[in-house]
Specification:
By secondary structure, this protein is of the alpha/beta class. The protein is 39% helix and 15% strand. The chain is built from 19 helices and 18 strands. Helix 1 crosses helix 19, helix 3 crosses helix 4 and helix 12 packs across helix 15. It starts with a strand and ends with a helix.
């Protein structure tokens, strides 16, 4: 099989440093690991940010045949920029990150890859040029001819520009549109959000400067190129996302509902749904893994020490499930670990045996964490119910430039310091990969409160569900594809706060604390088992990879 080239501005491999911004980077690594396990010849391209942990991840520097470090040169109009390549392998898949932090580059160029998407708008443009131009040069250096170029979000659209310039080779007699039409059949795209942050909007003068930077002083037919990324409603700006979708043979949204809302906002949208999935081997709690390894392998998992199975085939292994008693015991252990961690981080005293509800994700305004605080008096009654104690953990990545998000963070800080709510609500103003693993392993309820139509997928709920958390969410993203009756709870859109309080009081708490003589919440654990099965059956990266191959890459 010819190789697949995959492009992303971020890969969430480790906690430390801002080498990723959110779920897009987490999903990119989940996909990379799955592709490597399934034997797919995938080459993933990105940038090696200064804050990327280097020693812990055992990065290698890509070398020439003679052992010397491979150095690429790209032209930025008035200067050449040198790039090194840092690499890491995942089975049959290889991650290749471009690094400008080389002594031969001037200080300003060494700073291009300081952190993702910044620190300013122009540097963001230059980063995307480096990803596009550098990746195409690297493909040529490796003598690779991909069958498919998979561009992950509008921020990678300059890969198309780089391929165009490579074909033009300074020949201004060739029209850009004609070249792009010949490249289009090999290009596919994924759009991860309905929001404008999916790409850049460039004023004409900025795009012209960028176009000149990467066209070796010969910006052929700029006005024609500019027109390819504009539309009649926004003639004064170039949308990298529109350009990406215009010259992709196929493009997917990240859930069925996301595709539907894209079509409602952008009539004629070409996006079709391929719902995201999670990599169970990355997100399953360690004690669950260990317990299953003692009795056999769950469906779809390779036995320890075996080579990856051929693409599209599950390994021959014994299928087992956790007993209700074991699942509850293991989950209770994980809840206790979570509460211990939170108490240490916040100097709190949460109860390791109490019903624990977690809201954890980016503190973006449309995700509405403040809904939990809508009626403080009613919330106070819920958390102080002596018969059915409930506690909340709220964690989030906060962009201080988002004033509404910063205000919500302040509100949660104030609530947790209020004696009435002390040791009932904990707030953690960060959300790293290791914290995410602890939260998704130990939560009893995974709470999600986005404005319907804005949460494109929401894979954190899948990770929690894999480990036994029940879903409580508005019907957005992947939740819109499942029937939560007898699994979890759908919160009413438009009156989410009241719906949340009602469900907690009348359904959730009584079910959690209804125990058999052995202290097992039978009905609750049945929902845990059904939720885990749902995730393993429908929402893994294996299913997502199969969809990519059969619907996005090589549709029949």
């Amino acid at each position: 099989m010819d190789p697949i080239a995959f492009f992303s501005m971020e890969y969430a491999l480790s906690d430390d440093g801002p080498a990723f911004a959110g779920g897009l980077g987490v999903l990119a690594v989940d996909y990379l690991m799955e592709a490597g396990k399934q034997g797919l010849p995938l080459y993933a391209f990105g940038l090696f940010y200064h804050n990327q942990p280097r020693e812990a991840e055992k990065w290698e520097t890509l070398t020439e045949a003679n052992g010397a470090p491979l150095t690429l040169t790209i032209c930025l109009a008035d200067r050449n920029l040198l790039l090194a390549v840092r690499t890491k392998k995942f089975g049959s898949a290889q991650l290749l990150l471009l690094d400008t932090d080389l002594p031969a580059n001037p200080p300003s160029d060494r700073e291009i890859v300081r952190s993702p998407y910044g620190p300013d708008h122009w540097n963001m443009i230059v980063q995307q040029l480096v990803l596009g131009l550098g990746s195409i040069e690297l493909l040529k250096a490796l003598k690779l001819t991909p069958a498919v170029y998979h561009l992950n979000e509008g921020h990678t659209s300059f890969v198309i520009l780089a391929r165009l310039l490579d074909k033009l080779n300074g020949d201004c007699a060739i029209r850009p549109h004609a070249v792009l039409d010949t490249l289009k059949p090999e290009i596919v795209a994924t759009k991860h959000t309905i929001l404008p942050a999916a790409g850049l909007f460039l004023p004409k003068d900025q795009l012209e400067k960028a176009y000149t930077l990467c066209a070796e002083g010969k910006p052929c037919h700029f006005d024609e190129f500019y027109a390819l990324g504009t539309d009649p409603t926004h003639p004064d700006s170039f949308s990298t996302t529109k350009f990406l979708l215009e010259f992709s043979a196929r493009a997917n949204a990240v859930s069925q509902l996301h595709a539907k809302f894209e079509a409602s906002v952008h009539p004629g949208s070409p996006l079709f749904g391929i719902t995201n999935g999670i990599n169970p081997e990355r997100w399953e709690a360690e004690n669950i893994k260990d317990s299953l390894s003692l009795t056999g392998d769950p469906p779809g998992r390779d036995k320890a020490g075996q080579a990856p199975s051929p693409r599209g085939q599950d390994p021959q292994s014994k299928s087992t499930e956790l007993t209700d008693q074991d699942f509850w015991r293991l989950h209770s252990e994980n809840r206790a670990k979570l509460i211990n961690f939170i108490n240490q981080e916040t100097n709190g005293n949460l109860n390791p045996d109490a019903l624990t509800i977690v809201w954890a994700r980016r503190f973006a305004t449309y995700k509405h964490p403040e809904i939990l605080l809508s009626d403080p008096k009613r919330l106070l009654d819920i958390v102080n119910n002596p018969k059915y104690p409930i506690q909340f953990i709220v964690a989030g990545k906060i962009n201080l430039a988002d004033l509404a998000a910063a205000e919500n963070a302040r509100r949660f800080t104030n609530v947790t310091s209020d004696p009435l709510f002390k040791n009932k609500i904990a707030f953690l103003p960060n959300y790293s990969l290791s914290i995410a693993k602890t939260l998704t392993a130990g939560a009893d309820i995974w709470l999600n409160t986005p404005e319907v139509g804005k949460e494109a997928c929401g894979t954190s709920g899948m990770k929690a569900g894999l480990n036994g958390a029940l879903e409580m969410s508005t019907s957005d993203g992947w939740i819109g594809e499942v029937d939560l009756e007898n699994l979890g709870w759908v919160l009413a859109s438009g009156e989410t706060a009241n719906s949340l309080y009602e469900v907690l009081e009348k359904s959730v708490a009584p079910m959690f604390y209804s125990r058999d003589p052995e202290n097992l919440p039978v009905a609750w654990v049945q929902r845990m088992q059904a939720t885990r099965k749902l995730i393993l059956d429908r929402f893994t990266t294996k299913r997502m990879l199969d969809d990519y191959l059969n619907k996005l890459y090589f549709p029949k």
